[in-house]
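Annex B. Sample input.
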Amino acid sequence: MHTNMKKYLMSLALSATSLICFAQANISPAKKQSKTIAITGATIHVGNGTVIENGTLLFGNGKIISVTANGQVPQDDVMRIVATGKHIYPGFIAATTNLGLTEIEAVKATLDFQEIGDFNSHIRSIVAYNTDSKVPATLRSNGILMAQPTPQGGMVSGSSSVVQLDAWNWEDAALKTDDAMHMTWPVTPRFRGGFGGFGRPQQSPEVLAERTQAAIAQLSSFFSEAKAYSEMGKPEVINTRFEAMKKVFAGNEKLFIAAESQKDIVAAVNFAKKFGISPVITGADEAYLVIDFLKENNITLVVKQPHALPNNNDDDVNMPYKNAATLANAGLNVVLSIDGYWQQRNLPFMAGTVTAWGLDKEKALSTITLNAAKAMGIDKTTGSIETGKDATFFISTGDALDMRTNKVEQAFIQGRDINLDNLHKQLDKKFSEKYTAEKK
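Annex B, continued. Sample output.
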């Protein structure tokens, strides 16, 4: 490699690293809730479609004690927060993200979301989750208080876990470890003729179809062997890949399958059913074409962000915007996701976009709160503002799904009043002071 190019790449890596080092040291996680708190006067968006006007939210020891309209507040030893004219929302949940598993895309040493090989069921994303990342603080400022760090790559990528975004280490962060096993369905080829990369002719449809069938056969063999292994009691020799699949076959861990086209979605669901598994389908670009099939099989869908282009040339150009509404209005459990990790801060605004394309605003809220919690198996403890659940929510001065008015004023995770400072706010303060000083 040319010497100047080496110097350039080195300076690029150092510059990227300095961006992380620039900010102040990470804010310490909030301390455990010590006093019972009552928030009065706010509009409470429960997360299950219900809205409580002039509501009172009482919580203590990290749990919600009561949620009432015009509720009475005990007089003794209760801290009061008056939130008249403001809104309370359950903490948003970022689904299927590499948040905490990557920091700087240009620096390979900070990327820890993918392993080599096609079958990595033994991989657990939670042990690689980085609580010192600068990114979660930015998300918290927009109401994203929980996430599902997810491994990627191969056909079977490994297990995700659900974390809350204010913790010292991954053990403290974990809300549910190994909530789902993730796999990618082999893509059915769409032959269009012409040339491939570097001017090479595309392979024939027969060759592409054979390759896909070979991949499916490999998956089937892996699952068959893993299921047989799970039924044999205590094996003499431990197979870590098969061992990790035991919870999936026992129904204690969900199976998330990435599939886009209608043929792949149907094939993926039928494949899982063959092994007694009801999967969650992620991506689901063409799920609107097989709605009846999905309803018959009670399938939850994690759909992509609406700000995207359609997959096919002859698709409705607005289909990505309408997809979530079409599926949710048909009665399916829909979760909204977004690519990447920095971009997760825009998750609530993606839900806001969905409301402009046919979905009721409270139902859109559910796609990033209660529906997500159900898909991850944590809905008994979080995902909505209901008695007995974790006190994980935030107060906004405006509509949290509208980027023009969302202003998170205060946020709580399991009752802890968390710090909402972040790198973006620090940079804004620094340069605002700089230019204000220059004018003076």
